[in-house]
Amino acid sequence: MVIAMHRRRFLQYSTVAIAAPALVGRALAQTGASATLPIPPLMDVGEDAGNLLEAVTGRHRFAENFEAETLGWSRDHLGPTLRMRRGRTARLTARNRLDSPITAHWHGLHVPGWQDGGPQSLIAPGQELEQRLDIDQPAGTFWYHSHPHGRTGYQVYRGLAGMLLIEDDDKASNNLPLNYGVDDIPLIIQDKSFSSRGTLEYDDDGMAAMQGFRGDRIAVNGALAPKARVPQGLVRFRLLNASNSRVYALRFNDNRSFHQIGSDAGLLPAPVERRKLQLAPAERAEIVVDFSEGAAARLVSEDVPLEMMGGMMGGGMMSGMMGGSSGPATREGVFRVLDIEVDRSRTGAITALPQELLGAHLPTFDEPVRRRRFQLNMMMGMGMMRGIFGGRPKLGINGKTYDMDRIDQQVRLGETEVWQITADMMSHPFHVHGTSFQVLSQNGRPVEFGEIGMKDVVWVENSAEILVRFDKPAIADAPFMYHCHILEHEDSGMMGQFTVG
Fold it and tell me: C-alpha distances in angstroms, 29 versus 26, 60, 271, 480?
């Protein structure tokens, strides 16, 4: 059932426990009874006061008889799905009820730097920040999470994250599934690690910091290996990789095809048929799956192994030291994400996809006026040895580790640029705040715009080029960020900041 509410109506729903599978152990990935997929409550955020997000501690039940201490936004784990409208103002307050600072970063939103929620915009314990976000960008699937420097990985892993939707008033004109929680379903995918007692484990130094922390269980909307019941017809899934570092190669176990209709920054120009979809950390995708024949399905992911030094170290000693392809995988290297059962008593509202998608986020760039280069550095002096032998490594960009008191780039408002990003030693998801960009090439090969659309995260195996423009200002006291979205890399200094003016 869809729940749209302000704070006074929302709080009564915020403590609902989530049932989960009864087994905690390696067999959990493939066996055990499935929980019903939890659907985060929907919070419509408009211009009225009273929309409140509180960072709180909680105890969340991931599996029967196993509860873990967690964080959440007005809930015990994760947060409500925020829905905002294009062309309108979204007014809400972020309040910190924790004992450490947080931020509220609106990942993918085009807002000024002082509203972006980066590391400079800390909310101290017991304090709150009221924001009025003017929503002026195409409809799409975004998310929000805490972003304090040095603590982002821990806080997101514990649960300070949630999905955020932007909708157009003419959303029905596309003839797409849009009944939230019924045929338009959010899937927040995270990997977790549990102790033998079922408590959450997390490590952000040593080798875990070098490769990024990777759990060995997959949670969707806070439940382990859940089951979704969907109507007989077309169903839309909004996929968010909210994991700290794990890359997913998603497909269905029966090899059925599906259509991708959206990516990070909104709808694609036309549906793209696929059988597999890769999502790096922080990437989003919208897909539509046809269940009109009534057959059940299982969404699975191939385990994407760590690649070091262009793959040279992927299968050797370093891969073993750094976790390699650890995860809840079968012998075929595939693990379970979500079971899907078709409710034949319900007929889907949509029976056919349009050939073109109205309101797609199309590139509107001028000729680029300059080129900037960004080298993502894994080894900063003794940083590699610090990571191997314990402690947090010292990572950086262009030979410099992150410094909150230093502005790394100064960008002109409204000018188009080409950014060239290169990675040493391993692959990285590169995220830019405050805008969306077009990917021009990856590893020297041109990228077809219609295949991936506009983005705010690009997967950099060796190199990538993006076309970018900033239409929102950012000042030195509240700059925008660019960084690797492997959260342990970001926390270890693989981040820079820039002004726009």
Answer: 6, 19, 31, 39
H-type alpha helices, 106-204: 113-116, 152-158
DSSP-derived letter for residue 29 is: G
Phi, psi of 482, deg, nearest 5? -130, 140
The token pair that represents 460 in the structure block: 């950099």
Instruction: Name the CA dihedral angle for 244, 249, 254, 257, rounded to a multiple of 10 degrees.
Output: 120
Token pair 């009820």: residue:
97
Residue 151, CB-side half-sphere exposure with 13 Å CA sphere: 16
Mean pLDDT, consecutive 10-residue stretches, the chain (501 aa), reads: 36 31 33 77 94 97 81 98 97 97 98 97 98 96 98 98 92 84 98 89 88 92 94 97 97 97 97 98 98 96 67 37 41 84 93 92 95 90 51 89 97 98 93 98 97 98 97 98 97 97 97
Q: What angle (nearest 5°) sits at the alpha carbon of residue 430, between those of residues 428 and 436?
A: 155
Q: Count of CB atoms within 10 A of residue 121's CB?
A: 22
Position 381 scores a pLDDT of 56
Measure the CA–CA gap between 5 and 112, rounded to whole angstroms: 27
Are 38 and 80 spatial neighbours (Cβ–Cβ below 8 Å)? no
pLDDT score at 380: 62
Superfamily holding 7-167: Cupredoxins -  blue copper proteins (2.60.40.420)
Rounded distance, CA 263 to CA 78, Å?
Answer: 22
Domain-by-domain residue ranges, the chain?
7-167, 184-347, 370-500
- pTM of the shown model: 0.90
Please report, for residues 77, 164, 348, 500, the alpha-carbon distance to residue 239 in angstroms, rounded to integers and kept in the order given: 18, 12, 20, 31
Take residue 84 and report the two structure tokens written for it: 């905002």
Query: Residue 319 is inside which H or E element, if any?
Result: helix 317-321
- Return the amino acid letter for 394: K
Closest CA to 286 of 164, 218, 187: 187
CA distance 246 to 429: 11
pLDDT digits (tens, 9 = 90+) for 253-295: 999 999 999 999 999 999 999 999 999 999 999 999 999 999 9
Helices (H) and strands (E) in the chain, counts: 8, 32
CATH topology of domain 184-347: Immunoglobulin-like (2.60.40)
For the domain 370-500, what is the CATH code? 2.60.40.420
**What does the pLDDT read at residue 392?**
75
Q: What is the DSSP letter of 313?
A: T
The answer to whether the Cα torsion of 158, 336, 461, 433 is positive or negative is negative
Report CA 16 to chain centroid distance, whole Å.
Answer: 24
